Amino acid sequence: MSITPLKPLDLFWFIPVSGDGSYLGTLDGHRPADFDYLKQIAQAADRLGFGGVLIPTGRGCDDPFITAGALASHTQRLKFLVALRPGTLSPTLAARQAAAIDRLSQGRYIVNIVSGGNATELAGDGIFLSHDARYEHTAEFLSVYTRLLAGETVSLDGKHVRVTGAKLDFPPVQNPPAVWFGGSSEPGQEVAAEHADVYLTWGEPLDQVREKLDQVRAKAAARGRQVRFGLRIHLIVRETEAEAWAAADALIAKIPQAAIDAAQKKFAEESDSIGQKRMSALHRGGSRAALTIAPNLWAGIGLVRGGAGTALVGTPEQVAARLREYQALGIETIIASGYPHLEEAYKVAELLFPALGIAPNKARHHGTQPGEFGTSGTGITPARASAS
User: Fold this and answer.
1) Which residues fall within 8 angstroms of residue 61, CB to CB, at 6 or more apart?
2) What is the largest CA-CA distance in the chain?
3) Of the candidates 298, 297, 343, which has an alpha carbon nearest to the alpha carbon of residue 31?
4) How far is CA 16 from CA 65, 67, 102, 234, 323, in A?
5) C-alpha gyration radius of the chain
6) 18-27, 86-95, 113-122: least confidently modelled range
């Protein structure tokens, strides 16, 4: 039985600019992140009715701003949540780039601020600030960035950022584009409470997510602000529970133990991200023994993937029920993904959208006959499901 929602969740998808495939931790079936493939995923998400897509940032990713600008011209309604790491460019230049993409996409740009990360990678980008100092810098960065996009002329003589008379001559369509932000540490939550429109969390058990959201909500209220909330998670949805768990097992079936050990060592030694430490703790630093950490919540992806490492696994009704539990905590937007991202976008739209009450995008639908999939020309309406 489908769940009748009081309010549909806003469901975003993911653009895998690092590459894609059917198996984690191996080159078997690997799909390079060439533009034609990324365009296929973006156009599928646009056609199916996803609200937007996240484009990540980092050394292992193609540049998200350039990718978003290119994909915007091949889509119609899809929003682009573009990851941006303060410290890799000035807030003034970032605001100019943001305004350009917002104009080119006719108001479909959102920024995802990423302050944390791998210390080795950050050093390669010329960022040598400590964990807490990075969030101090982010706060100053956003003070300039958001005011510029709101049309102000900005001067700031800060500890990390200094600008005099900064302004935009070419404004964005939105005034200003929204700021989405994630950070599990105390300094990260303080930045979110002061500057974020949407605070993002990774898929942890409900009690952990509730505690984090309550903390951010209270910090924002102390500043006279309200913050909305989003959840970044993977989805493995199939018609039966057995099929879903088989797909989860297959996803990690080819990972050699050496790859898990190397990934976990890298996360432990090179990352000072509190969020990453929380993810690693869910599977006890790389153990396959107990990956189901809550009803339908599976930590297998985090064995080798940094960042969001959990998935909801199950039937459409089961996954929808779990998402509704997160929604009851205040989550409004789900940023989802699945491997491979092209096929899984269709599975999620076809199986999960109805269970969540999300209406498909009908802008391009037409009256094509069912043909071999129904009873074309007979006047009989084909059933949704039938015996094989």
Assistant:
1) 17, 18, 55, 83
2) 75
3) 343
4) 14, 11, 21, 13, 23
5) 21
6) 113-122
Quote the distance between the C-alpha of residue 197 and its chain's center.
15
Q: Which two tokens stand for residue 246?
A: 């088989």
CB atoms within 10 A of CB 366: 5
With a CB cutoff of 8 Å and minimum separation 6, the contacts of 136 are 129, 159, 160, 187
Give the Cα separation of 204 and 182 in Å (integer): 14
pLDDT of 14 over the 60 cut: yes
* Per-residue pLDDT tens over the stretch 149-193: 999 999 999 999 999 999 999 999 999 999 999 999 999 999 999
Distance CA 170, CA 179 (A): 19
One-letter amino acid for residue 159 of the chain: K
Split at pLDDT 50, 70, 90, the class of 386 is: very low
The residue type of 68 is A
Instruction: For 235-245, write each residue's pLDDT tens digit.
Output: 999 999 999 99
Kindly state the DSSP code that residue 105 receives in the 8-state scheme.
T
d(C-alpha 44, C-alpha 345), whole Å: 7
pLDDT band at 300 (very low <50, low <70, confident <90, very high): very high
Yes or no: say if 195 and 179 are a contact pair by the CB < 8 Å rule: yes
What is the rounded distance in angstroms from the CA atom of residue 52 to the CA atom of residue 232?
A: 13
Strands 198-202, 154-157: pairing is unpaired
Q: What is the pLDDT of residues 23-49, one digit of tens each?
A: 999 999 999 999 999 999 999 999 999
Which amino acid is present at 250?
Answer: A
Cα 187-188-193 angle, rounded to 5 deg: 95
Report helix, strand or coil for 232. strand
C-alpha 250 chain-centroid distance: 23
What residues does 231 pair with on adjacent strands? 201, 334
Model pTM above 0.85: yes
Residue 106, Cβ neighbours under 10 Å: how many?
A: 12
Domains of the chain by range and CATH?
A: 10-236+311-361 (3.20.20.30)
Total residues belonging to the chain: 388
